[in-house]
Amino acid sequence: MPEKPNNFWLELKRRKVIRVIIGYAAASYVILELISIIAEPFSLPEWTLRLVFILLCTGFIITVILSWIYDVTPDGLKKTTPTASVKEQAGKQRKQKPKVSDIVISLLLVAVIALAYPRIFNKNKSDPDEMSWTHSIAVLPFADMSPEKDQEFFCDGMAEEIINALTNVDKLRVIARTSAFSFKGKNIDVRTIGNELGVANLLEGSVRKSGDQLRVTAQLVSTSDGAHLWSEQYNRDLTDVFAIQEEIALSVVEQLKMKLLDQEEERITMRLTDNLEAHQKYLRGRHILNRRRKEDIYTSIDYFKQALELDSLYVMGYIGLADAYALLPSYAAEPEDEAYPMARAAISKALEINDRVGEAYASLGWIRMLADWDWKGAEEAFRKAVSLNPGYATAYHWYGYLYMTMGKMDKSLSMVNKALELDPLSPVINRVIGDVYYSSHKYDEAISPLQKTLELEPCMPFAHLNLSLCYLQKSMYDEAFEEITREKQCRENPITGEYVLGLIHVKMGEIDKAREILQELENKNIKGSGTAQLCFALGENEKGFKILEEMYENHDVWVIFIHSYPWFDNVRSLPRFQDLIKKIGLD
Question: What are the angstrom distances between the C-alpha of 340 and each of 27, 291, 334, 369, 528?
Answer without folding.
Answer: 47, 20, 10, 11, 19
